[in-house]
Design a protein that fits this description.
This protein has 108 residues and is α+β, with helices and mostly antiparallel strands. The chain is built from 3 helices and 4 strands; from the N terminus they run E-H-E-E-H-H-E. It is globular and about 50 Å long. This is ABM domain-containing protein.
């Protein structure tokens, strides 16, 4: 099993933008071959929020197929283009990616 975490952290004033991104990603994830489960976790304090989008896959190859689909790649290309041209605005959302492979610790 392969697990991917995408963590989005920002000010509560930008929470609606994080939620919109998560909803879009959630809708694009359903019924994907090799997907085992999807969770979204929330951690918040007085003025910051952190949402963690966690997907579990049958294999790393299933995840790679999903993340390299054409519409996803094009979306990131467009975001990078806007960022380079200074068109993306000043919204500060920190994104952290983590990926894990399930390990049977009794066999290590």
């Amino acid at each position: 099993m392969f697990i991917s975490q995408a963590c989005f952290e920002g000010d509560k004033t930008n929470e609606h933008k994080i939620i919109a991104k998560l909803q879009k990603t959630m809708n694009e994830t359903f019924n994907t071959p090799g997907l085992v489960s999807v969770d979204c976790w929330l951690k918040e304090n007085k003025d910051r929020v952190e949402y963690v989008f966690v997907t579990k896959w049958e294999s790393k190859d299933h995840f790679k197929t999903w993340v390299t689909r054409e519409d996803h790649v094009e979306e990131h290309k467009e975001m990078n283009k806007q960022k380079q041209q200074g068109q993306q605005g000043e919204v500060k959302i920190k994104k952290t990616l983590r990926q894990y492979q399930v390990v049977d610790v009794t066999s290590l």
